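Sequence and structure are no longer studied apart. As an example, we show below a sequence and the tokens encoding its fold:
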Amino acid sequence: MSDGAQRILANTVYRAVADLGSKFASLALYVVMARELGETEFGVFTLGLAVATLVTALGGFGQDAILVREVARDHRRIDHYFANTLTLKLVLALPALVLALAAASVGGVARDTRTVIALLGIAIVAELLITTCFAVYQAYERLVYLPIVLITQRIVIAGSGIAALLLGADVVVVSAVYLGGALLALVLALVLVFRRVVRPRLEVNVSFWWPLMRMAAPVGLAGVFGTVLFRVDTAILAWFETPDVVGNYGAAYRLFEAAFFLSWAVGTAVYPVFSRLSPTSDPPVRVVFDGALKLVLALMLPLAVGGVILGRPLVELIYGADYDRAGGALLILSPAIAFHGLAHVAALLLVSQNRQVVLAVVQGVVAALNIALNFLLIPWLSLEGAALSALVSQVLLTLLFLGYATRSAGGLDPVRIFAGPLLASVLSAIAMIVLRDHLLPAIAAGGAVYVVALALFERTAYPDDAKAIRDFLLRRP
């Protein structure tokens, strides 16, 4: 197994551990919040998070992706990108947040809701700065530090937030706790950059901002459109429905989003490798692209299938009977889990090969379609309409990204990518359907069948791929 493949798998594990630990902590907080605050106040938090994320979206305007790509190609470029990226994020995000709060005040939005948006907005700006530190770890392929920051942040937020909720805190106090955890994580992330990875010069060069923004703009637009794609449904739902309905959708969406850490883990590991390769390099980028698609599909497809089959009892177990409508939304959303993984890897391939304009155009078209679908389906189907809009949009996005990325990479091997995960998922689905009235045994049986079936298929059909994973797990050189 090559050193490059070992690094990809190791960095995938580091990112997955970071996200898994942080997701468990966040999920614990959301569950307690949903139970303690009730549907209405949980709906305020969900709406506040969505609005804050939307209005600060310009802060993460693609600079991190450009930093990773350029610094991965030449580490000396870190001095040009680090401080300028941090400064640009602040310049773009903070004024937008202030304007949004002013508009909310003029529009008569309740004071507590405005306070929640303000607190969560500042927290999200801090998280934007944290992601630049993560970009440095990624460019240097030192992702071992990422779980230290993410897990620390989420444990602090979850632990403090749960304690506050059990003592009777309201949604404003929980939002303040979220902000405190984000600021603590920012300090930790910066310390690790300077002490463990690299000491970039802190030089802010305004003349460099335009070239940086010109490179980042397509990625940034794609990011803004992506934020719209994943957040606007909640805002539109809140326009037509009551807070308790928004709370039900938020509960389903938190579970749906919880699976994304796997695609982020794979993407974080392979993106710097994509950036150094091309269709004519040795090895060609197509080889790594095939492997990345196969890995992300193998990780995410069983979760998508499990969500469809077991989504309703899972929601009832986690949130309680009051969130009965969330189960139907999760069933509709779940297939998009697998499509999201494929789309994420394909999008990173496009950026790595300097095709970010294509990324922005596709993401923008699909985001516009998503808005139209939400306005069409939500008045008709309520939160199920929002979920259906998200699924249709994600499927279309994936097909378009895969088409353009395949051309940029020089082709792909669909049988190698799809055969094993699809076969194993069918067998896993049968096991879960048989045991669907018993949730935990169904999850255990489905997972076991999937792992065994996939391992046997890969060992027979693609022994080199199976050996690569086995060697990594056994830490063989």
